[in-house]
Write a structure and sequence with these properties.
With 234 residues, the protein is mostly beta strands.
């Protein structure tokens, strides 16, 4: 699995190889954070250097450094704080100057099912969105006290433009245009949905081949779409 750069309508280019990239994020400085097995690393796209950010966190309950268990999604906010959602359904927040001293955020039991991805909409009072094991997109308030389902995959399976059941592997929000972008791994595609109405209709913007599975997606500051994919060679 490796990060690809997609400009919609153009041929993708590989920006980094020889990495197991289940999750990735591009911060405001154009650094690319990615998961390589149980570690979070940073790829500097200007000079090509790769550095280790963290592979552990401090847990007061266990009195020491704990391993980061195969992170499944990442988010880096405007203050360079890293949010890692690991395979034990835990969201852990890191300060940039304390990469091995994370804060444990217990939000995995809210909403419908276990969260599989996370996106923080900093333009909306730091509300964050999660994809759940039940195919829904849920929006939480910044204090995690309230949640709302903004897209229910169980209600859209008969949509003629999006035939077949939906599977939500990753979500990002374009606040300016009030759009959701979703990685639909099961159907090998990227879809776009409007947040400004409740019609529950969307459109396919990228359809992959039968050997390519899209996973995590991100937009950079120029609105280029990045997709982490698995290529299953025949």
């Amino acid at each position: 699995m490796f990060p690809n750069n997609y400009i919609i309508g153009q041929i993708p280019t590989t920006v980094l190889s020889n990495a197991t990239c289940k999750a990735l994020f591009i911060d405001r400085y154009d650094n690319l954070y990615f998961v390589d097995l149980g570690s979070v690393k940073i790829f500097n796209r200007t000079n090509g250097n790769v550095t280790l950010f963290t592979n552990s966190y401090y847990d007061k309950n266990f009195g020491g450094i704990q391993p980061l268990v195969f992170p499944s999604d990442l988010y880096v906010d405007a203050s360079s704080r890293l949010y890692a959602l690991d395979s034990s359904a835990r969201v852990i927040r890191y300060l940039p100057e304390q990469p091995n001293n994370g804060t444990f955020l217990d939000d995995r039991d809210h909403g419908l099912g276990i969260a599989q991805c996370i996106f923080i909409n900093e333009a909306d009072n730091n509300a964050f969105y999660t994809c759940n094991s039940i195919p829904t997109i849920t929006k939480f308030t910044n204090d995690r006290s309230n949640w709302t389902i903004v897209l229910d995959g169980r209600m859209t399976v008969d949509n003629t433009s999006l035939n077949g059941s939906l599977s939500f592997d990753s979500v990002i929000v374009d606040s300016l245009h009030q759009q959701l972008y979703i990685s639909d791994t099961k159907n090998r595609r990227i879809t776009q949905w409007s947040l400004s109405n409740n019609t529950q209709t969307g459109q396919i913007i990228i359809q992959f081949s039968n050997t390519t599975e899209p996973k995590r997606i991100r937009l950079d500051k120029d609105k280029n779409l990045y997709v982490a994919v698995i290529d299953q060679l025949l």
